[in-house]
């Protein structure tokens, strides 16, 4: 990695500050453990934790100089297309890191609140996430520049402004290269290929 790439990597990892949400989750867990078993992790508690987890994602957008350098119409389109999947990945990452998904009371309430299928999918996603925090942050940053439309609102597509494809592809290439160089620096070639895949 060059000095410029190290600086870019540092800026990306600082855009996403997971510590506030993790400390909130830990504080909530500690408070819940003091309650009788039947009163632990009610629906509103789960929603507060998930909202705290999802709120981290906004910083990936608002503190990322590359994202801010795009035209307002391109930023708007990217936000609409990528916010939900990136927020979902963020929630899975933070739930995994805080070990909430292994807490049976939390998971049971999550199933009631969000549905069994969604909760199981979130749990499987969290279990498959790499344990390298920097790598996961790079993946989330890369996903904000995805041109793949994950939204389900097809009517909105016709009204959206065109996306600046050239700028997006340049940014995608920059982030992919940075991710690859980080992995090669951190791991041996075989492990880097496995993570990248």
Question: What key attributes describe this structure?
Answer:
197 residues, mainly alpha, 12 helices, 75% helix
Outline the structure in words:
The chain is mainly α and 197 residues long. It is built from 12 helices and no strands. The protein has helices at residues 3-15, 19-33, 43-55, 57-62, 65-68, 72-97, 104-114, 116-128, 133-143, 154-159, 165-186, 189-196. It is globular. The mean pLDDT is 85.
Q: Average the pLDDT over all residues and give the rounded result.
A: 85
What is the number of strand segments? 0
Please mark out the parts with pLDDT under 50 across 5 or more consecutive residues, or reply none: none
Structural class by SSE content: mainly alpha
Q: What's the layout of helices and strands?
A:
Layout (H helix, E strand, L loop, with lengths): L2 H13 L3 H15 L9 H13 L1 H6 L2 H4 L3 H26 L6 H11 L1 H13 L4 H11 L10 H6 L5 H22 L2 H8 L1
TL;DR of this structure?
The protein has 197 residues and is an all-alpha fold.
């Amino acid at each position: 990695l060059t000095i410029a790439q190290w600086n870019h990597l540092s800026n990306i990892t600082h855009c996403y500050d997971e510590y506030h949400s993790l400390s909130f989750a830990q504080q909530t867990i500690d408070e819940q453990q003091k309650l009788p078993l039947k009163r632990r992790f009610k629906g509103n508690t789960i929603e507060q934790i998930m909202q705290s987890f999802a709120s981290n994602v906004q910083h990936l957008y608002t503190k990322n100089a590359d994202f801010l350098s795009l035209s307002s119409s391109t930023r708007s389109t990217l936000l609409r297309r990528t916010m939900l999947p990136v927020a979902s990945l963020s929630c899975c990452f933070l739930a995994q890191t805080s070990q909430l998904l292994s807490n049976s009371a939390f998971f049971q309430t999550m199933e009631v609140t969000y549905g069994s299928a969604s909760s199981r999918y979130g749990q499987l996603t969290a279990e498959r996430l790499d344990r390298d925090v920097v790598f996961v942050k790079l993946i989330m940053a890369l996903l904000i520049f995805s041109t793949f439309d994950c939204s389900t609102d097809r009517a909105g597509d016709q009204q959206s402004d065109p996306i600046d494809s050239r700028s997006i592809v340049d940014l995608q290439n920059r982030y992919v290269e940075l991710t690859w160089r980080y992995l090669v620096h951190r791991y041996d070639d075989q492990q880097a290929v496995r993570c990248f895949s």
